[in-house]
Amino acid sequence: MEESLIKRLEAAVTRLEGGGGGVTLSRGGDFSSGANVAAASDPSILAYDDLISQCVGRILTAAEKIGGPVLDVTKIVAEAFAAQKELLVRIKQTQKPDMAGLAGFLKPLNDVTMKADAMTQGKRNDYFNHLKAASDSLSALAWIAFTGKDCGMSMPIAHVEESWQMAEFYSNKVLVEYRNKDADHVEWAKALKELYLPGLRDYVKSHYALGPVWNAAGKPVSAPAKGPPGAPAPPPAPSAPLFSSESSKPSSSSNQKQGMSAVFQQLSSGSVTSGLKKVTDDMKTKNRSDRSGAVSAVEKETRTTTKPAVSKTGPPKMELQMGRKWAVENQIGKKDLVISECDSKQSVYVFGCKDSVLQIQGKVNNITIDKCTKMGVVFTDVVAAFEIVNCTNVEVQCQGSAPTVSVDNTTGCQLYLNKDSLETAITTAKSSEINVMVPGASPDGDWVEHALPQQYNHMFTEGKFETTPVSHSGA
Length: 475
Prior knowledge:
The protein is an alpha/beta fold and about 475 residues long. Among the domains are: about 40-220, Adenylate cyclase-associated CAP, N-terminal domain (Serine Threonine Protein Phosphatase 5, Tetratricopeptide repeat, Alpha Horseshoe), CATH 1.25.40.330; about 315-430, Pectate Lyase C-like (3 Solenoid), CATH 2.160.20.70. About 35% of the residues lie in helices and about 20% in strands. The chain has eleven helices and 16 strands. The strands form three sheets. Strands 3, 4, 5, 6, 7, 8, 9, 10, 11, 12, 13 and 14 form a twelve-stranded mixed sheet that branches. It has a two-stranded antiparallel ribbon with strand order 1-2. A hairpin with a 3-residue loop joins strand 1 (about 25) and strand 2. Belongs to the CAP family. This is Adenylyl cyclase-associated protein.
């Protein structure tokens, strides 16, 4: 199986090294066979071949044992790495382009990553965490778009590390779910991480620490031709993610408008009201003989306690207020929320978000999550405290340090601590289903889950109450 696997990987890049005649590469002009072979035999390209055969080959082997969507998305990961190798070969024969030319130059790689992102859309299946981890990890390949300190991106090595952090959120879910169920899934998650850390990171560190080196004497890259109106353009390289998929996602607001338009159309046509019963005179309150002027106590209580359910959801918001407070509010279904420019004097307040993921890059003073459902937060360091209030099913991952984590009136909280945050003080009140994940004893060990108690015994002993958590048999 390993031999066929390596052959399949090599087939993805053999078009670069074909013999006889010139080799034509899209958007880059024609290069002679000799120049192309020389570029492909460069030590940096050979090292990339080793990365593909070893690290990508390992994750493909694990994926073949799982099959299904996991194998499909893993093949896309292999295709993306093969596409990046092609670009690295072309860079050695091409002049440094402008931003428009760079967007077109990187389009083959962007197209592959969009295929992975498309697999995460729509109805979730049992392998959503696998698909999301693989799709998000491909943003690490955007290091190739680094053109200098003023381009709006982190340095290549830092970019690879930062990009993996978001993917690790879902990769850890795979490890937790399958650590005692299926070793193949655990091997897949570990192989995916090692593909980037240390795999891709060490490769970039050794060969492209300051970014790609273009050939000043090479051929220019022409800007991509303008497409028809409405066609999505390749995303730019600066601060916005290179592999943004926002243009491919349907607009939730437009879906709501279509739905409301259909409702109003039904109202105007009478199809909704046609089945309603007509109120006759004897059914009216003023004509009913069984009614009196007195109001019963039960009816009065019902009137005072029953309130109409009104949903008050404000507009989505993500902004820095007065230079001191980041407000992230009413975000629904957003998996790519990122706060990158922050400092230790600022706080982050997350309110009313649902089915979203927020990444906070850098140290902040305080983080509060309030009235959120199915919310994931990945943060680096916090000076004061991380607070979770009035939430349902939230997941929090600390990648640095946090003196205090407070959980209040919350149902369902999964907290991931790294080795630097094991001394965090965790305070809980009126909360249930609180689980804390900590690293294993060895660097390659699995995460260990600890459930925080939510039931207590209070015993009056020697003039005072002593409180101890309830211990269940088999726990």
